[in-house]
């Protein structure tokens, strides 16, 4: 039996109003026999051809716009994206009716993401065993210029109390979930006399700009009839926040490349003084030193750093080197101060306004000091914080991010003498990935298994996050191949 689900978004259901029954009849005709003349089926051009859109005639005055969604096998899913009057539709379509070659029935697609091209079977003619379900749902989000059906894990995040840590595999929807959480709560935050303020932080300027564009697209799609200002949400990098806090300063910013040049000169001098080659000086090792300093920045003393990081999580397993690197960390700080320069990785993210919510994407890219300042900064009573963490999406790093963030919240709770015994921060993992084809996901899981083995266990790797797959590992890569990868 073939099952088709037609999802109605809240704004569309409002447009249907008391005429839901009439619209339902039109949609059932489309599912059972899409090519019948009265529906005047048309395929619309979409930007970058990222997601197919189809239009059908409802009556002489209006048309319905639909798109297919990825869903399970032996089932089809569609979302009604708009009800358009004819004059509105003519502006949207941008094309003439389907050509003879295009008059094939639109394709139904499988899976829960709509980021890939339609791959399923065509919507066929009437089927006696075909069932159609109509679902009013808030699980459909307009993200990355596409309508996406959130999976159960992603949808559940909207209702989780904050603060919250979201971790997951690449392509599991962490950024999308962050924006969906903001969208879900912004009406509640806007009920006060003052306009709400929400801040989203990411290290990458490119990611910040991408999220800003996605947020504006979400607002345009979902908030047309609501008094919600997209500018209530601000997207910034740590560097932009620093510049905004110091508008009159002529700041010289430094980063990894400047550090490497400084460090190699410093290391050679130190090695000469010690008459030992303790500090590594190659370019590759200098990069690792810079990453280790990111970790050091989260601790107030060398003793605390040594006790909480140690051999397991440091990029350097030699205790003597780690002690010397702490001296490098202090010398680099002193050099920045002497030169009136700033490396934002070693500055607190100082928030001078109160925000209804703070979101941090790609948290693993921030230094430990930056992470600490967000949790334990001047806005000490800030509870509405969402951290998105993807520790598998970086080449370097020592201690895994999720346990460190959890530790920061516990410290904050203890410092406030508010040790209630309750969980102070919630951690939710997204296990499915919708970015890659299934063979790639299978191979990635095998690599993650090797990573867990090398790092000493699943807890050290953010709770053993594996990308959701449908087959056991033995079917992904043969045992002999795995052994060869492990032992050469």
UniProtKB/TrEMBL annotation:
Entry keyword Hydrolase: yes
One biological process term in Gene Ontology: recombinational repair
Bias type Acidic residues, positions: 101-110
GO molecular-function term, one example from the UniProt record: DNA binding
Region described as Disordered: spans on this chain: 101-122
Matching InterPro entries: DNA_helicase_UvrD/REP, P-loop_NTPase, UvrD-like_ATP-bd
Pfam families: UvrD-helicase
Keywords: ATP-binding, Helicase, Hydrolase, Nucleotide-binding
Domain (UvrD-like helicase ATP-binding): residue spans on this chain: 152-392
Segments passing through the bilayer: none
Protein name in UniProt: DNA 3'-5' helicase II
Species: Legionella busanensis
Lineage: Bacteria, Pseudomonadati, Pseudomonadota, Gammaproteobacteria, Legionellales
């Amino acid at each position: 039996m073939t099952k088709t689900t037609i999802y109605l978004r809240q704004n569309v259901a409002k447009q249907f109003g008391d005429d839901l029954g009439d619209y339902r009849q039109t949609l059932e005709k489309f599912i059972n026999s899409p090519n019948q003349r009265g529906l005047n089926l048309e395929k619309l051009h979409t930007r970058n051809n990222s997601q197919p859109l189809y239009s059908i005639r409802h009556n002489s005055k209006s048309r319905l716009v639909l798109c297919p969604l990825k869903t399970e096998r032996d089932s089809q899913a569609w979302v009604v994206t708009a009800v358009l009057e004819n004059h509105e539709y003519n502006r949207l379509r941008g094309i003439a009716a389907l050509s003879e070659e295009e008059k094939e029935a639109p394709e139904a697609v499988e899976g829960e993401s709509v980021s890939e091209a339609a791959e399923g079977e065509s919507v066929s003619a009437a089927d006696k065993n075909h069932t159609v379900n109509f679902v009013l749902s808030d699980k459909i989000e307009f993200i990355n210029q596409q309508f996406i059906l959130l999976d159960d894990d992603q949808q559940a995040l909207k209702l989780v109390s904050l603060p919250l840590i979201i971790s997951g595999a690449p392509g599991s929807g962490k950024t999308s979930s962050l924006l969906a959480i903001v969208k879900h709560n912004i009406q509640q935050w806007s009920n006060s006399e003052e306009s709400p303020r929400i801040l989203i932080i990411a290290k990458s300027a490119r990611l910040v700009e991408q999220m800003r564009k996605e947020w504006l697209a979400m607002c345009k799609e979902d908030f047309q009839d609501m008094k919600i200002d997209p500018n209530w949400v601000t997207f910034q990098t740590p560097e932009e926040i620093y510049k905004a806090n110091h508008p009159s300063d002529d700041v010289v910013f430094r980063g990894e490349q400047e550090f490497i040049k400084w460090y190699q000169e410093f290391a050679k001098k130190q090695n000469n003084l010690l008459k030992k080659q303790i500090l590594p000086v190659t370019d590759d090792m200098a990069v690792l030193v810079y990453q280790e300093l990111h970790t050091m920045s989260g601790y107030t003393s060398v003793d605390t750093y040594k006790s909480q990081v140690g051999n397991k999580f440091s990029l350097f397993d030699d205790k003597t080197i780690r002690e010397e690197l702490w001296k490098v960390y202090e010398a680099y700080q002193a050099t920045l101060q002497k030169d009136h320069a700033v490396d934002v990785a070693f500055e607190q993210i100082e928030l001078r306004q109160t925000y209804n919510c703070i979101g941090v994407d790609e948290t693993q890219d921030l230094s430990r000091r930056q992470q600490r300042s967000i949790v334990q900064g001047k806005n000490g009573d800030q509870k509405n914080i969402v951290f998105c963490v993807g520790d598998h999406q970086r080449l370097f790093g020592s201690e895994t991010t999720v346990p460190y963030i959890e530790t920061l919240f516990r410290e904050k709770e203890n410092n406030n003498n508010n040790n209630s015994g309750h969980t102070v921060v919630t951690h939710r993992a997204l296990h499915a990935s919708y970015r890659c084809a299934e063979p790639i996901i299978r191979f990635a899981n095998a690599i993650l298994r090797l990573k867990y083995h090398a790092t000493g266990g699943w807890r050290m790797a953010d709770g053993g996050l594996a990308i959701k797959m449908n087959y056991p590992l033995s079917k992904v890569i043969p045992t002999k191949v795995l052994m060869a990868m492990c032992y050469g």
